[in-house]
Amino acid sequence: MLTLKCQCCGHEELFENPEKAFQAGWDAPPHFTGYTACNLCPAACAAFGEPHFKAHAHWHDHGRPSDFNALCLPDKDFGKELAPFVAKGNKIVGDFLKKLDG
After folding, report:
1. CB-CB neighbours of 43 under 10 Å
2. Could you tell me if residue 99 is inside a domain?
3. pLDDT score of 53
4. Which has fewest Cβ within 10 Å: 18, 52, 69, 94?
5. Is position 13 within any domain?
6. How many domains is the chain built from?
7. What is the pLDDT, as a whole number, of residue 13?
8. Is residue 10 part of a domain?
9. With left for phi above 0 and alpha for psi between -120 and 50, is residue 54 left, alpha or beta?
10. 24 lies in which domain range?
11. Contact (CB, 8 A) for 60 and 28
12. Could you tell me if 64 and 71 are in contact, meaning their C-beta atoms sit under 8 angstroms apart?
């Protein structure tokens, strides 16, 4: 058994082995070295800074969510100010993929 602690948010979780932690979405040894991060705080997300820190504050007030969102905003009511930008980005990518399909 292995207990890992996220170096970003402090969440601790018990795993059968390192591979099970990796399969659960953790950035942890042996796949990732030097920084252990839970499934809600992957190293790439923590590096984004401000949105992720806002997510931590939201978790503190409203509880830790169970699902991860690529914008580090897992709660459906958090981060609505980004919704127009996400919608625009999705449209651009969708239009591009349609062009590739011909």
Report:
1. 14
2. no
3. 76
4. 94
5. yes
6. 1
7. 95
8. yes
9. alpha
10. 2-74
11. no
12. no
DSSP per position, the chain: -EEEE-TTT--EEEESSHHHHHHTT-B-TTTS-S--B-TTS-HHHHTT-HHHHHHHHHHHHH---SS--TTS--STTS-GGGHHHHHHHHHHHHHHHHHHH-
Instruction: Name every residue whose Cβ is closer than 8 Å to that of residue 12 and which is 6 or more positions away in sequence.
Output: 3, 4, 5, 6
Predicted pLDDT of residue 60: 80
Tokens 């651009």 belong to residue? 92
What is the full per-residue pLDDT of the chain (102 aa) written as tens digits? 999 999 888 899 999 999 999 999 898 888 887 788 888 887 766 666 666 777 778 778 877 777 665 555 554 555 555 566 666 666 776 777 777 776
Whether 66 maps to a domain, the answer reads yes
- Determine contact, residues 26/39, Cβ cutoff 8 Å: yes
Task: For residues 45 and 35, give the distance between their C-alpha atoms in angstroms, rounded to a whole number.
Answer: 13
